Amino acid sequence: MSADEALARSLEAFERELAAAAPGGAEGAQGRVAEPGALGVDVSAVPVFEEGEVGSGDAGAVPREDAEIAARAEEGYEPPPEAAGGGAVAAAAPTYPPPPDVGDGRGDDLVLRQIREAALHEPDPELRERLWEEYRRLKGSR
């Protein structure tokens, strides 16, 4: 017996148990035991896991973040060694104090927090200043 057949039989047995536990016992409102699929589950239409991914409209689609990483890699970008662990700033990364005019960051949304965090850990002074300029621009428009 294949896995699909085993699943279908299991669902049929489960539906029978549900029908028996329903008000009125095993006899439904129409005087018979609920048929497989009577509860609205068409097991023949349910894709097997290998046929599609849960929650994805297109199983072949590449997540946006992966596409951005691939595009940056094609341009020659290589992440710093401390970032290879997975997105979080390494604990040993130096921090640079924020300019006095940007405040303490309370009330920042996700994008502002990310720009602020990037600026606090950016070793290149020119790029760090550009990040702070972007932070100021976005903070002023919100």
> How does the major sheet shape up?
none
Unreliable spans are none
Secondary structure: helix percent: 40-55%
Mean pLDDT figure = 73
Quickly count the helices: 4
Radius of gyration: 28 Å
- Overall geometry comes to elongated
What is the total tally of β strands? 0
Query: Which structural class do the helices and strands define?
Result: mainly alpha
Distance between the termini: 60 Å
Beta-strand proportion? under 5%
H/E element order: HHHH
From the structure above, extract its key features.
142 residues, elongated
If you had to describe this structure to a student in words, what would you say it looks like?
Helix 3 packs antiparallel against helix 4. Among the domains are: 3-51; 94-141, no CATH class. It has 142 residues and is an all-alpha fold. The chain contains four helices and no strands.
Topology:
Layout: H1 3-21, H2 64-74, H3 110-121, H4 125-141
